[in-house]
Amino acid sequence: MTTLTRADWEQRARDLKIEGRAYINGEYTDAVSGETFECISPVDGRLLGKIASCDAADAQRAVDNARATFNSGVWSRLAPTKRKATMIRFAGLLKQHAEELALLETLDMGKPISDSLYIDVPGAAQALSWSGEAIDKIYDEVAATPHDQLGLVTREPVGVVGAIVPWNFPLMMACWKLGPALSTGNSVILKPSEKSPLTAIRIAALAVEAGIPKGVLNVLPGYGHTVGKALALHNDVDTLVFTGSTKIAKQLLIYSGESNMKRVWLEAGGKSPNIVFADAPDLQAAAEAAAGAIAFNQGEVCTAGSRLLVERSIKDKFLPLVIEALKTWKPGNPLDPATNVGALVDTQQMNTVLAYIESGHTDGAKLVAGGKRILQETGGTYVEPTIFDGVSNAMKIAQEEIFGPVLSVITFDSAEEAIQIANDTPYGLAAAVWTADISKAHLTAKALRAGSVWVNQYDGGDMTAPFGGFKQSGNGRDKSLHAFDKYTELKATWIKL
Q1: How sure is the predictor about 2, in pLDDT bands with cuts at 50, 70 and 90?
Q2: Is 302 considered catalytic here?
Q3: pLDDT in tens, 335-362
Q4: Does residue 54 carry a catalytic annotation?
Q5: One domain for residues 198 and 311
Q6: Which residue out of 39, 105, 175, 267 is catalytically annotated?
Q7: Number of domains within the chain
């Protein structure tokens, strides 16, 4: 555990040298156009630096380089054991630079420094090392054949991978994709969100330091409608992996059809139900989890427990526990190690969240906690964790992904009704069930149309469990051995003996 204080972090922030250029073929480089955009910290509105604004010309450079590097075999044909060792070194360098990366993440995105340091950076490093460790333990197959035939089923790297990652967990989401994509031998072009590009830019150099050949990992900062679109439409990008909004995910599918039918793997939005039955084994624990499920990372989480479904018979007892638990989640300066709620990523997102809060009022929901912008004097973008009671599942705040700390409380009278409400959304990313009845837990979990279901906890799992959604929450899976399917092609080779 670090002993750094807020004053220490603020001094480091003042001394920090920020790299804002793209990374192509092992070198930092300006955008071809010379264009940049400003990187503003949501902590206090300060200008962190100018970031290269890449576009189609930069995408072309990166794709050409990635393809040439892939075809050379310098990484794609390297023995899996050697790729494994390199990936483990890459993970080790993330840990070695943990404080620098955590500071970049907090200044750039607004999350608490303690979360960046103890959750995001270790999680990112684990994603790299876990995937690296797995790669020499994934076997190919021999088909069941007649005695004079030999059927081989082999995995090959898909080629050039475009990875577009979100702004809420910039480093960890990148490494969820880089881990299996690089371990399987692909070349990768990473496009971080323009809202939080700094850690992606930094780790590009760490990859080369770890021994990943130049050209295997390229990083292109810029906007979705410029460089992101260029990658999605490029005929020499073989696979596109994406985490972000459902709206953009749908557009990427269109771009695939308009170009080379590249494989597109999407992790999109969520409106996750957190279902608390009257027989929940520990209402206090459930209340604390419900508060954390909406306040953690300022609610900027695709799996945020944004719909709290409470059995009517305990609502009057349970809701005050949630309100009280939420009081422990207080927005504050993200560079203070004691802060557990930081700033929303930027003014645009803050205004979006405030507009949803206004919508809750307009639609007749009852505000019972929070609901305001605070700490305006800091120049940062802070909103109180918020609870609306009396919410109908048809309301805008119950149907649309807010991506902020806004909780909708909905009551139900039976398990069947809870399941119906829970599934009544375009999304299907995650859900939670609180009950002491093991049969009810299993039957409810089976009935929920969600990629992850947690029982008597919220946000369980680790690298061994797949992560992804049903319905308009996307397709494909991050984490676990299932993630490797996105980055490999299956080849059948049939030999007559």
Answers
A1: confident
A2: yes
A3: 999 999 999 999 999 999 999 999 999 9
A4: no
A5: no
A6: 267
A7: 2
